[in-house]
Amino acid sequence: MGIPMHEIREAVLHLLWKYGIKSDTWGTGSAKTLNHLIDEVSKKECILHEENGSVYRVTRTLGINVYYGDDAKLLILRERMQVFVGGRIRTRNLDTSLGEKVSPDETPLHAAVRALWEELGIEVTPDTVFRAKFPYLKGPQDSTSYPGLKTIHHIYPFDVTIPPIYYRPEGYVEAQVDKTTYFGWDEVQFD
After folding, report:
1. Which among 43, 48, 108, 171 could disulfide-bond with 156, CB atoms 3.0 to 4.6 Å apart, if both were Cys?
2. What is the fold of 5-187?
3. Is the peptide bond before 140 cis (omega within 30 degrees of 0)?
4. CA-wise closest residue to 157 among 79, 81, 98
């Protein structure tokens, strides 16, 4: 049985207080809420790691570039915006089409397959379309999701070219309980 949610909440609040991290601006602008962080910790999508007098949010994250087309015209999918319940809009300038946290019980490749299904409704097999690249570390850096909390991402990058059956020229919409995310296509500019 897991740790009760109220204990997770107390532990997160204690660490934030211990290191002087204020969450009063969280849930405004492009920042997520304190409850989002507590949920991430409870689902083990991130850990809060103390080191050298600081606390860091550490994630295992996918960066997936989603392509469609051929050498004559190649498109790349981009996140346009997230609209939260209540109308708050969050725009992010992601380096990749999709960003998704890897759950502790899955490999990065299986997480990539899951992310395509959950976010875009695209069902693929890992052995046919994914091209994995070398994983890398990003951070510690200021978090746009949780201002004041430094984040270290262990990033697992993938490229995927989707088959024509899944191509939607109008883009994709992912509806979640707390937000809706919109994706659209941009043409890849070759130099």
Report:
1. 108
2. Nucleoside Triphosphate Pyrophosphohydrolase (3.90.79)
3. yes
4. 98
Q: Are 187 and 75 in contact (CB under 8 A)?
A: yes
User: Which pLDDT score, from 0 to 100, does residue 72 have?
Assistant: 82
> In 3D, which of 75, 51, 85 has the Cα closest to residue 175?
85
Class of residue 80 by CB neighbours under 10 A (exposed 0-12, middle 13-18, buried 19+): middle
Decide: residue 15, CB within 10 A, 0-12 exposed, 13-18 middle, 19+ buried.
middle
Condensed to tens digits (0 to 9), the pLDDT of residues 173-190 reads 999 998 999 999 999 987
What is the per-residue pLDDT across 38-50, written as a single tens digit (0 to 9) for each?
999 999 999 999 9
Token pair, residue 9, equals 């909440």
97 with 120: CB under 8 angstroms? no
Q: What are the backbone dihedrals phi and psi of residue 80, each rounded to the nearest 5 degrees, phi first?
A: -90, -50
So where are the chain's domains? 5-187
Q: What would the 3-class secondary structure string for 86-118 be?
A: CCCEECCCCCCCEEEECCCCCCHHHHHHHHHHH
